[in-house]
Amino acid sequence: MYVCKSCGSTQQKWLGKCPQCEEWGTFEEAPDAPKKSRNKLGVNAQFASTFVKAGSYERKPLRRFQTGFEEVDRVLGGGIAEGTVALIGGDPGIGKSTLLLQVLANFAASGMTVAYISGEESIDQVSERLERVVDGVPDGLFLLSDQDLGNIMDGLVAQEFDAIVIDSIHSLQHNDLEGQSGGMSQLKAVTSALTAWAKKSRTVVFLIAQVTKEGYVAGPKTVEHIVDVVMYLEKVGSENTRMIRTLKNRYGDTGEVGFLDMGVTGMGDKTDFATMLVSSLSSDEPGSALGITLQGSRPMIVQIQALVNDSTFAIPRRVVEGVSKNRVEVLAAVIAKKIPKLYLDHKDIFIKVNGGISLKDAGTDLALVAAMISSVTGKPWKETLFIGEVGLLGEVKPGIAFEQRYKEAKKLNFKDILAHKGIPNISKLG
Question: Where is the RecA family profile domain (predicted)?
Fold first, then answer.
């Protein structure tokens, strides 16, 4: 039996490409199923399954803990709920460990008992970073350096904790299973054991994860299915700006984003990111247009740049960054149909969304169209913001959350806002 280490699907024979997730070279031979044992992890013995009557069960109120970061609390839905297992991924050096050390210090300063468990660094290394990012280490913060899950679980069962951080989940080893730490079976077993303990003890567990070169959490997708929250920390805009976003959240909205500033002494909230972003963006040059997108429930100003040139190829090129290529193809076809004098179907089109933000909602269609038209005509859209979805007939529609976008634009002092009422069809732009 062979198992895909990306998505967990099984096949009777080895395949070069997984038919489920379409990843290449991900199949490996599945290890023999381990014999069940009552090992020192104590999960089976400590937390035996017990059925309860739904009608007579008295649910305990779910507490939420504030992380000390407004932006992180916002992403989590108002703080992190007790018993939550949260997986956080991001490139090496992006600030995952620093952020969670600060979160634990904030928890401890409020009277909670917390632990930072590192499988990659010594206590001396963790302590050195802690002293750099925290002004006065609180009493309730404990450190441990170990890779043996059994030893770690013994310590967690012996002393009650309100929250812990595991750095990283890929470094821990379940000694009842064969295979190296970070392997598919190891990751599933370690995550399952920690999740079972978190649910029974109502402890918050943060799991730091390594990512692949494509930016996804390394390992099988089943790990993301086991946990309650999946978050990513990414660099966006300036060198020191970080965006934290959720891909999954059982206790809040998915897709929410927050912004942080990473400095020498650690992370801080960047609540004024939208205002700072506007001051750095410009549509004074031809080929540039400003739109407003939704990142989760947060409206954000984006600058779209387009470069449109006569093509020397039989099939014109479409090169995009930060937006779907299919979407650009469709909008280019609509422009070619509605404004034929631009001859857009015979031109190469290059699109870039500044700031490292990806556009996934149709409410920025009009801004994309405006940028392409401006590049062809050579006329800039000075101090103009575009809001709207564009249909196949060239009609401009308000799109999702138009009022929210419009209010944000007004709050940021945009006076010239073009939308469906002023531009009923894109032919008016040509």
Answer: 61-211
